[in-house]
Structures are given as C-alpha cells and as structure tokens.
C-alpha cells in the first residue's frame, strides 16, 4: 500500500475483517491430468431403482442449470427446476455470442488438452484452481459432441467438419461457434433437453419464481424459499440437495453487459446462510462493449470478442482528434494492441485489452461524441476477404451494432469501450462443486474455480456446460448415496417455517421503509461509485473511499427507500428493491476483497502494484491463494454493517508453474 493510504486502509480492514483458517486443499496422490478420472472412479453411486427416492432442487435454467436438471432428470432423479423467467430458454446464457472452447485438436495448429490448461491457468493469472482447469479441458471434447448431437447448429467448413476460430489469450483456433449466436443456440438446445424431461414428469418446472433464501437444517441444505413473482406468494420447497446455477453478479455495476434481471440474490442469500464467497473482487470488464452514450442509459451492450479476429483496434495518435475515422490517414492511427503486444495483437486477453483501452481513453485519445471509446475497424478485413465473408462470420453482430447506434460498421469503424461483464468470483466450492454448506452445489458463473482472476473468451459457455452436463450429474449422486433411507425434510418442519417467516418479514421490511427514492436510483448511484472506485483499475485510497461511500449509501437505502405497490402480487419495484439490497452488501464485500488483496492479478489491477511497463504485478509469495469470505454478523442497530472472516485455499500449479504473463 502507498504510505499515504496505509493507515486508513489498514484501519478499515481491521474493522471489517479478520483472517481465518486455511481451507483443505484437494487431497490426491495422482497427477493433475488424472484427478478427474480418479475422482469419478471413486464416486459413490445411486442405483437406478433408488434414484426416484431423491429430489434435487436446481435454481436457474441457463446452460449450467438446464444441463444439470435435464441430466439428473434423465438419470431418474426427481428434479424441481426454478427460473424467474417465463420460459427456461430466456436465461442469460443466450447473450454469450462468440463461441465455446474445446481442446479437440481437430485443427492442425499444435493445440492439445495440456495447452488448453496452460492457456486457461495463465489467462487467469494463476489465481484459479489448476485441477478444475484440467477437468474443463478434458470434458470440453464431450461438450461439443453432446451439444452438436442435441441440436446446436455449429458452423462448418466446406467439407462438413466443425469450424473453429480464435479468441483472446490463445494462439490456436479452438473456439466452436454458431455464427454470432452461439449462446443463444446452445441455450435453445439445452432448454429443449430440459423440457423433454418436464414432459416425462421427471422435472417439475417452476417459472416466474424467484429464490429468496436457502433452508439449512441439520447442518445441510435441504430446500429453498421462493416467491411467486405473479401472485407474490412466498413458500418453501424441500429436497435432498440444492444446485445454484444463477449466473454472475456483474449487474452490481448497474451499467453492465448482463440482462437487467440478472442478479446476485440467490447466491448472496446462500452466503448469508453460511456459504463462503470466493474472490468477489475478480470482475471482468469486457473490452468490446458498446460505450455509454447517455447519462440515463440503463445498461451496456456486448459486442462479441470474436470480432477481434478480423477487426483492428486503434485510436488517433493525436489527442482530441475530431475528424471522422475514415478521414484519419494510416500514419496517424495507433493500433496500440498490435504495437504493445505483437505476438497476440488484437487477441490479447480481456483484462489486458480493457486496461489498454482505458489508458488510451484517459490519455485523451478516446473517440466518439463523449470521447469514451476506441475504434474496432474492419476496413482491412473487408478489403482482404470481401464483405460477403465478413457478413457470413459476423452479420448478426453488425446488424445489432447498426440497430444500437445507427451507424454502418461495414463503412466505418465500430466504437467500443470496456464494460462490466463477467464475475470470476462466486460461491466457493470444492472440487466436487459443493459449497461450504453440505448439500449446496454451485454451477456456471455462480461458482468460482475455473477462471482465476481473468476469464479467457469462450470459456464461459464451456464451464457452464461442463458443470451442468458432465460434473454435477456425477458429484451430486456421490453426495446423495449415503442419504438413502433418510426422509426428505417436511415443509412443516420448524426450520422451514422459520425460513419462510424470515423471508416474509424481509419483504415487508422493504415495503415499510416508506422513503422517497426508488430502488433504481440507489442502484445507479452504487454503479457509478463502483466504476469509479472498484473498476478497471483500483487503488487503496479509492477502495477506502468506495467502502465508505457504499456504507453511507446502504444506510440511506434502509431509511429512504420507496417501494410502491403491495407485496402480495405482481410488483417489479419490490423485486428490484430486494436485489439492490443484496447488491449493496455485495459491493461492500467486493471492495473489501479488493482492498485486502494487496497485489495486482488479472482483472484485479491495483495502481500500487504494476511493472514499469504498466502490467499487473502479482505477489505469489503472499497471495497465491483464493480468498473465501465468511459473513459473521448481520445488519442490526448495534452493528451497522457485517463483519467478515477471510479463509484461504492455497493454490498449487504442478502442471503450469507460475510465470509472469507476457503477450508480447
């Protein structure tokens, strides 16, 4: 920490957190490349005739949730599936446009499973669990074949083989895609598989239903409390295990690339019930989001990273250059990623590309009406390949850009800027995807293990599919097997009644505040604060200011929130209020984690810790671990804010020894 901020930062850390115990690491005697096979071999099994005796609750119907529910239903388990959408296919997985990675090595470019692991671990700046990256790589082959088999229309070469393209952070072509609609097409296929199980009766689908709390009884997760978003009724559903596949928390920044309804509530309510939250400050800012064009804009729009295959990113050499982009000659353009990182060029990892863009914008070379963006130019690609080829590869993305901006990207460069996007942090889980609460499992972006401090492009859809189709259907039965013969928790149990009553009281408390400001206003102010203090770059001084600002905003929220309408019916303002309440606590934990982690790594870039060349400077001697946070106090009059205990899972990299990332 810098001398001017050490005192205040340290005092705030001592007030908000203590350092707790180390978490047990993965205890195995086999090489990293064999851990998953060995684990599966020793998992306990549930026989087909006994599977109908168990009920598994799956919250979320994106790729991870739909896959887990469909697979468990196909195996014969009773599944209760929940989504707050009106149909499972509307889950946010549809928005991941660019592609899905797989180490199938069908292109002769020297790719392999081991290279996939190396790229993923290095891309995450050595802050993810290496064993998880091996599982991700191994199962990636089955994922592509499986999704192809259930209907995903992957792009193909002229001869019929599946086509691939490159993504950031790698020098091989391993990304499979369906034009610019990969997430949408994969989600449609997964939703259809889920609905097939609904039609057989193995899966009971609950739409327009939001999880409000986790039911923990006898030391394990045994159900959830939900609210019907149409009628307002709050009720409980019990089961033998719970899977949370509820996505990430990037919307804490208000303006993000996520769907407006994406939120952290399910995960954070589980955190309040004892589930550790890992690496909350690891937030990815996507370098190819559309820039904010108005103060009142409610979100940003994502343009796929796949565009960086053929688009070239540049800014004018001269700060403040107001000429139209096509009027700026070649020698007055700075293709800064190609200049700074010649080996990877425009396909540098997202954290590197976002910081580089922010540097150029802050130096006065930003473009557009608000001078807050950089150019992504397809002029050279169109001249080289022809407009028809570019349209075949990215046509729907070009149409999306044109609809959003009124500009023609075939004729003039796109304008892009970093935008809050993906959460690498999430509920801590062990290698079996089970959280610190026995019986509570996590999948997809709601978890933490694969991506470290920066996610490589096209690993998001992959990790969700691997969790849903090829991990949880093995690990959940391993947990269930010893429970054979135990009765499912009754909805009349005291623990269930208490959880429902607490959820009802929480909803009523929001209504009763009776203030003057709606939840949207608080959310917008929180987002502006986070972008300024815990954004693409952070500092100890800024994080202290951010924490103080969040705590003041939270106090104002609980005294001046206005929620119109009644709790017993359709009330979207009430929904938003509950989510913003969780965002305020989530934001505090993010800034606390960012202040505590006194180093730079991946997307967590502390100004105090950078090389002479402006790159992230890790501190492996002190921070080679994942931070897993335990919440130890609730908000009350005596203690105005929660207190946290930071536990550590120390990370080992036997296959990919830590090194300084270099993309030059």
UniProtKB/TrEMBL annotation:
<keyword id="KW-0813">Transport</keyword>
<keyword id="KW-0560">Oxidoreductase</keyword>
<feature type="domain" description="FAD-dependent oxidoreductase 2 FAD-binding">
    <location>
        <begin position="56"/>
        <end position="461"/>
    </location>
</feature>
<dbReference type="GO" id="GO:0033765">
    <property type="term" value="F:steroid dehydrogenase activity, acting on the CH-CH group of donors"/>
</dbReference>
<protein>
    <recommendedName>
        <fullName>succinate dehydrogenase</fullName>
        <ecNumber>1.3.5.1</ecNumber>
    </recommendedName>
</protein>
<keyword id="KW-1003">Cell membrane</keyword>
<dbReference type="InterPro" id="IPR011280">
    <property type="entry name" value="Succ_DH/Fum_Rdt_flav_su"/>
</dbReference>
<dbReference type="GO" id="GO:0009061">
    <property type="term" value="P:anaerobic respiration"/>
</dbReference>
<dbReference type="Pfam" id="PF00890">
    <property type="entry name" value="FAD_binding_2"/>
</dbReference>
<feature type="active site" description="Proton acceptor">
    <location>
        <position position="350"/>
    </location>
</feature>
<dbReference type="GO" id="GO:0050660">
    <property type="term" value="F:flavin adenine dinucleotide binding"/>
</dbReference>
<dbReference type="GO" id="GO:0005886">
    <property type="term" value="C:plasma membrane"/>
</dbReference>
<dbReference type="InterPro" id="IPR003953">
    <property type="entry name" value="FAD-dep_OxRdtase_2_FAD-bd"/>
</dbReference>
<dbReference type="InterPro" id="IPR015939">
    <property type="entry name" value="Fum_Rdtase/Succ_DH_flav-like_C"/>
</dbReference>
<keyword id="KW-0249">Electron transport</keyword>
<dbReference type="GO" id="GO:0009055">
    <property type="term" value="F:electron transfer activity"/>
</dbReference>
<dbReference type="InterPro" id="IPR037099">
    <property type="entry name" value="Fum_R/Succ_DH_flav-like_C_sf"/>
</dbReference>
<dbReference type="InterPro" id="IPR036188">
    <property type="entry name" value="FAD/NAD-bd_sf"/>
</dbReference>
<dbReference type="Pfam" id="PF02910">
    <property type="entry name" value="Succ_DH_flav_C"/>
</dbReference>
<comment type="similarity">
    <text>Belongs to the FAD-dependent oxidoreductase 2 family. FRD/SDH subfamily.</text>
</comment>
<keyword id="KW-0285">Flavoprotein</keyword>
<dbReference type="InterPro" id="IPR030664">
    <property type="entry name" value="SdhA/FrdA/AprA"/>
</dbReference>
<dbReference type="GO" id="GO:0008177">
    <property type="term" value="F:succinate dehydrogenase (quinone) activity"/>
</dbReference>
<feature type="domain" description="Fumarate reductase/succinate dehydrogenase flavoprotein-like C-terminal">
    <location>
        <begin position="523"/>
        <end position="663"/>
    </location>
</feature>
<keyword id="KW-0472">Membrane</keyword>
<dbReference type="InterPro" id="IPR027477">
    <property type="entry name" value="Succ_DH/fumarate_Rdtase_cat_sf"/>
</dbReference>
<keyword id="KW-0274">FAD</keyword>
